[in-house]
Write a structure and sequence with these properties.
The protein is mainly alpha-helical and about 280 residues long. The chain contains 13 helices and 6 strands. Helix 7 runs parallel beside helix 13. The chain starts with 5 loop residues before the first helix and ends with a helix.
Length: about 280
Amino acid sequence: MDLEKFFDRVNHDILMARVARRVTDKRVLKLIRAYLEAGMMEGGVCQKTDEGTPQGGPLSPLLANILLDDLDKELTKRGLRFVRYADDCNIFVASRRAGERVMESVTRFVEGKLKLKVNRDKSAVDRPWNRKFLGFSFLSNKQATIRLAPKTISRFKEKIRELTSRTRSISMEERITRLNRYLMGWIGYFRIASAKSHCERFDQWIRRRLRMCLWKQWKRVRTRIRELRALGVPEWACYVMANSRRGAWEMSRNTNNALPTSYWEAKGLKSLLSRYLELC
């Protein structure tokens, strides 16, 4: 179950009533109310906000949990198993029929009591391995093995393509630094998933994309000959490869032996697989 435009639709009065249950200091309540009604800049003009909490604000996630605490208690009271993070919630039941019944009753509770709107397009009754939660999904086995959701893999590849775009004129050192920053953060988050084979394939693919970028940087034939010679490629192979009419992506495969894994390790490129095995 997903809540539609959750941070934009939070009712201030309902939220403040929930906060007042826990906070008795009126100065704090007044400060939170001022935070909610501070408004937003749109086209250089400050627009008043009658509902919602500032997206990206440090207090918004906490206020979201305070408001949705009633939902957690309602699901607990019904004896349902669930997991929730902010406005994204998965409820686990034994059958499709039970799922449809729970979906209908919980939607009435959320929209009636909390005055929020359930996103029908993103919410569904389905098998756990057909859905995703915070970028994760499950394998269809009895061990409930955690896996990477397909959309997570697509987003990862899209980001890597952006960082290794051959049209971006940055040095290889800077490119590797940016890659490492993203890769280590990504694997730190998704380390709980069963992703060993993914990490191995990603490492190979990333190195090939870097070889493509490097070949693109060696624009001239004489530059390619000089660089390949320095890497220990036989003289005849240097001339054949340097004069090839094939594109950079195709040549990235042909330069695999000249630019092996050890070359990129020496350049400081981090390995997803190595980091994954360390964290596991």
